[in-house]
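Tutorial handout. Part one gives the primary structure; part two gives the three-dimensional structure as tokens.
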Amino acid sequence: MGSHSYGLRDFPLGGRLVGPGRPAYVIAEAGSNHNRDLVTAKRLIDVAAEAGADAVKFQTYTAEGLYSRNTPTMSYLKDADLLEQQESVWDLIKRVEIPWEWHGDLAEHAKGCGIDFLSTPFQEEAVDLLESLDVPAYKIASYEVNHLPLIGKCAATGKPLLISTGMASLGDIERALDTANGAKADQIAILHCAINYPPKFADLNLRAITTLAAAFNIPIGWSDHSMGHTADVVAVALGACIIEKHFTLSRDQPGPDHPFALEPKELAAMVTAIREAEASLGVSVKRVTEAEAEMYVLGRRSLVAARDIAIGAALTRDDIAIKRPGTGVPVHELEQILGRRAARPITSDEVLTWADFV
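Part two.
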């Protein structure tokens, strides 16, 4: 690993380039927070666009294609009381799956809002549906990183792949990337992710973003289930090129993805914080910036006459005060000016220059 790249260092996505040093591509993840209501789904698209996200994303699956009816229930669903009475995981997924006939409507609505439309396919038939809508990229969920046939089918479309890596080892990631490369994909990003809903901050391990960048030499992102946007700002500072975050119209609604999702104002605040973080990173050179130029001159100190100095008088330390502004002889040249004779009468509090002495 690290000896070669598994794809391009940057690639076009949604009309702009995604990669190191470029603005993070922000995906607002609607997930199942549409509550199987088309009006709600469209409102989610509106909110994502209003917040300044680059893309809105849903999830395309069926209960039949996703889970065995014999799947044990996840503890977080029980702990958060997200299951209805006597409801199995399969029943829950059936209740929140997005009707496939909505996709065309949603994609058209997103286009009208000026935001990219994405949806994560969880089965191979979903790729066919999404290809018919000409989605700009394919997101592979963390749970599907070992679903190599699905990765291969998405890769074969020629569209960019965004592969989440929650629970994945470097070996798992290599297999996924090898599968994508085998299908001729070279526009690939991998997204660090911590699986839990929500995860503890101590479990996010965001420094893995730099590890993944060094290991695979392709754009690295961050798929986030944590509360607030602290982790997203940190991820951008560590070099994340893509940020994915769940959002909802209200956390008070019933459903598995609402409790850890951002509400509309919080989503907008996250996008603002990310853009502020990017602007604040600047460049690695330590220098006086243009914004600092005035205060560099007026706010720093230089040498000033501490009292009246007669023409021809030899300058002593008692003649010199160190004050603002910084337009006179620099403070670090104090020893060099001592003993010089005044070329003219100098009034107390005058800023001293080399021209004042012989």
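Part three, for discussion. DSSP finds 13 helices and twelve strands in the chain. The radius of gyration is 30 Å.
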